[in-house]
UniProtKB/TrEMBL annotation:
Residue ranges of the TM segments: none
Family annotation (Gene3D superfamilies): NAD(P)-binding Rossmann-like Domain
Protein's name according to its UniProt entry: NAD(P)-dependent dehydrogenase, short-chain alcohol dehydrogenase family
Superkingdom of origin organism: Bacteria
Organism of derivation: Micromonospora humi
């Protein structure tokens, strides 16, 4: 049998590392052709200063069974994004899935300081990286995506709408960035609906990205040792989990029922039955509400 996304063309904008990389890889594992974009290549690094590259991501996509194509793009530059979409059109003649995962603002965030103590230049740069990039990418990519009915847009953020609406995200700029991503999923859903398209906002749970593993001083092989620093780390998930959530949405012929909604990887795993790499289904959102928020001791029993 052919993989479920054979013939599908996807653009994962912001696929250098973390969630974006594994979304691209999991789409590849499902048979898709994936354009993986970002600013860090083997020749130069972005302001993130990290070693992961888009070429590595594309190679991982191909090794997983898909076709990975790395394209260096600064998604704040409209002309670079225009050229990217023109290339996809010329090479594939279609675009079926757009994943807006562009971020790259971690070094810019000042945590737990009020707005009057926030550095404005870094704050506004954060918003540009988190919001402007997504809008610019959709502006150029959606005319190609709506050429065929059934297109899917996934806005990747941090926190569901319900969570972000009720929670102070420790920085006015980070807060605005993540609320905006939820809203972009909602607004694009309305704009795509007349063309047979679907848009959602999607958040992972506590993501074991490359940077997060380094922060906790662990590797994927011994990640549970991170619970010595924060016991709730026992509920973290690999980036592949949210990647499989995107695959499940893209492969679902009835995905339009989610149009405009704010979704999470754990909730979709309960719906579609996919698992994380270890065979479990971590449900961070439910765990947070039932264990973290009430101040209970960390215990992932019944939440995987």
């Amino acid at each position: 049998m052919n993989p479920p996304l054979t013939g599908t063309v996807a653009l994962v904008a912001g696929a250098t590392r973390g969630a974006g990389r594994q979304i691209a890889v999991q789409l590849g594992a499902a048979g898709a052709t994936v354009y993986a974009t970002g600013r860090t290549t083997r020749d130069r690094r972005s302001e993130m200063g990290r070693p992961e590259t888009i070429e590595e991501t594309a190679e991982l996509v191909t090794a997983a069974g898909g076709t990975g194509i790395a394209v260096a793009v600064d998604h704040l530059d409209p002309e670079q994004v225009r050229a990217l979409v023109e290339r996809i059109d010329a090479e594939q003649g279609r675009l079926d899935v757009l994943v807006n995962d562009i971020w790259g603002a971690d070094p810019l965030i000042t945590w737990e300081k009020p707005v009057w103590e926030q550095p404005l230049d870094a704050g506004f740069r954060t918003l540009r990286l988190a919001v402007d990039t997504h809008i610019i990418t959709s502006h150029f990519a959606l005319p190609l995506l709506i050429r065929r009915p059934g297109g899917l847009v996934v806005e990747i953020g941090d926190g569901t709408k319900a969570y972000n609406d009720a929670t102070y995200r420790l920085s006015v700029f980070y807060d605005l960035a993540k609320v905006s991503v939820n809203r972009l999923g909602f607004t694009q859903a309305h704009e795509l609906a007349p063309h047979g398209g679907t848009a959602v906002a999607l958040t992972p749970g506590w993501l074991r990205s490359e940077a997060m593993l380094e922060h906790f001083g662990v590797t994927e092989a011994n990640w549970r040792d991170g619970a010595r620093t924060d016991p709730h780390f026992v509920m973290s998930e690999t980036p592949a989990f949210v990647g499989r959530a995107v695959v499940a949405l893209a492969a679902d012929p009835d995905r339009h029922r989610w149009n405009g909604q704010s979704l999470d990887s754990g909730g979709l795993a309960q719906e579609y039955g996919f698992t994380d790499l270890d065979g479990t289904r971590p449900h961070w959102a439910r765990y947070h509400d039932e264990v973290v928020a009430p101040g209970k001791p960390a215990d992932d029993s019944g939440y995987r």
